[in-house]
Specification:
Length: 207
């Protein structure tokens, strides 16, 4: 199993925010909440969150076959029954390839993906959210962002520069641009939460 230190550090703070959108009482009516996590990576988050949120039916996915093996191993090791077998998913491709029915998801999650993926992945994420989320469903994203054209503090400026040197298609995405993407796909930025290590959680709500 992969065990990235960052995922170990941020799982607690992220879960605290997620509970507001996937915890008991977060949704009207009883029943299972359907969650799709794109770019699930090691699977540590999927196993940790699903165990803490037993009312969810958690579908992890990734584009990397090595990640799929790690996700399966974490789920088995932690004995989390509400995590489905991981699926191969390229978020840059059309939602029809995702294996999910329109208006069927309560929550779509993307953690630390946008800044280390091409822009087509961010665009695909919002297009998918616009179709696959139920009315009032939530797209939850986490990571470092530029805010209305400004990157801060200096450590994030340096991080953005290093990402773009590694791959010109990478880099911190701007919340102003994400708002536009959201609105073009029937969502709106409902909330921005400051998180440890100069990251943010962004809550986009489907209208």
């Amino acid at each position: 199993m992969q065990a990235p230190a960052a995922a170990e550090r941020n799982k607690g703070p992220i879960l605290e925010v997620l509970r507001e959108y996937a915890g008991c009482g977060a949704h009207a009516g009883a029943g299972v909440l359907k969650v799709l996590e794109v770019g699930a990576g090691s699977g540590l988050h999927a196993a940790h969150f699903a165990r803490a949120l037993p009312q969810t039916r958690w579908q992890p996915s990734d584009i990397d076959p090595r990640a799929l093996r790690s996700i399966a191993a974490y789920t088995e090791a932690m004995r989390v029954p509400n995590v489905l077998p991981p699926i191969l998913l390229d978020v840059s491709r059309s939602w029809e390839t995702w294996g999910t029915q329109p208006a069927s998801l309560d929550l779509l999650i993307s953690i630390n993906m946008m800044h280390i993926a091409e822009l087509s992945c961010t665009e695909g994420l919002f297009k998918g959210a616009g179709v696959l989320l139920k009315s009032r469903g939530v797209l939850f994203t986490y990571g470092p962002y530029a805010v209305d054209g400004q990157i801060s503090p200096q450590s994030n400026v340096d991080f953005d520069r290093s990402l773009r040197q590694s791959n010109p298609a990478w880099g911190l995405r701007d919340t102003a641009f994400l708002r536009q993407l959201a609105e073009a796909n029937g969502l709106h930025l409902e909330r921005m939460v400051d998180m440890p290590a100069n990251n943010k959680s962004l809550i986009f709500r489907k209208q």
